[in-house]
Amino acid sequence: QVRLVESGGGSVEAGGSLRLSCEAFGYPYTSYCIGWFRHAPNEPERVASIDTDDVIVYADSVKGRFTISRDKAKHTLYLQMDKLKPEDSGMFYCGSHRGNCPLRLTTMDYWGKGILVTISS
Questions:
Q1: Using DSSP, how many helices (H) and how many strands (E) does the chain show?
Q2: Scanning 2, 6, 30, 82, which has its CA 20 to 30 A from the CA of 75?
Q3: How many CB atoms lie within 10 A of CB 55?
Q4: Which string of b and e fits 66-96 if b means at least 16 CB within 10 Å?
Q5: How far are the Cα atoms of 108, 119, 120 from residue 15, in angstroms, in the given order?
Q6: Segment 41-67 mean pLDDT
Q7: Distance (Å, rounded) from C-alpha 10 to C-alpha 3?
Q8: Closest CA to 52 of 67, 34, 68, 69
Q9: Cβ of 19: how many Cβ atoms within 10 Å?
Q10: CA–CA separation, 54 and 42 (whole Å)
Q11: What is the rounded distance in angstroms from the CA atom of residue 109 to the CA atom of residue 120?
Q12: Residue 5 above 90 pLDDT?
């Protein structure tokens, strides 16, 4: 059974940094999309994702501040978040899909339970 488990959330002041991690358990696929999203699973919005050909996509609001990366050997996805703003606060979800990221994010195959990030001004 596939599980995505997020960690690393918390509370920091504006301007600070956090690093989120998502570990994938029981993941049988070698070619897949994986990323970080908000408002999942009903109205997911992409924060950052890595596609099957390692193409990375960022939301405009996080470009230059967030960096997504993954360690395939450890089956772990990361999101380094710098220069955090209060509007970055909320739940962050790890999501994954067999093959390329779908155009309709509501059809993503797997979601983690999410992790809370709180940025104080």
A1: 0, 11
A2: 82
A3: 11
A4: bebebeeeeebbbbebeebeeebbeebbbbb
A5: 32, 9, 9
A6: 96
A7: 21
A8: 34
A9: 13
A10: 26
A11: 33
A12: yes
